[in-house]
Specification:
By secondary structure, the protein is α+β, with helices and mostly antiparallel strands. It contains five helices and six strands. The longest helix has 14 residues.
Amino acid sequence: MRTGQGFDAHRLVSRSDEPNGVRLGGVEVDPGRAVVATSDGDVLTHAICDALLGAAALGDVGEHFPPEDPRWQGADSLELLRIVLGVLRDEGWRPVSVDTTVVAEHVRVAPHRSSIRRTLAAVLDLPEGAVSVKATTTDGLGYLGRGEGLAAMAIAVVEVRGATQQ
């Protein structure tokens, strides 16, 4: 078994300025704001991708999905996660569990937590109990506290495919 960690952050703007609403784990959580990003800007899914890739020592999101490549413009982050899972599978790894934390002052996770967990668990092919989604604020400190952005952290555990899960 191996453990990896991931982090992602994006700038928040008014929905009128960008087409990408705020999505976390594939679920729209704030239709009034938008995220500035190459893809759909799902910081939670991006952090999970980096955690999985890191656990298997297979690079990072920027290496697999370079922002200058037009194929990733507006990409669905859940599809990026599916691609990452394919890369892991090809190298003999599978996810065991994922623990995440969203850091945002005004974007509320609690009303969407169950949907986010369910969506991520389905894509990761894990039981919902193996996918943790938490949230916190910075109590007004920094760019996150001023509501200028949001961030997410993730830790993933992977094991060699075929190993017995305990």
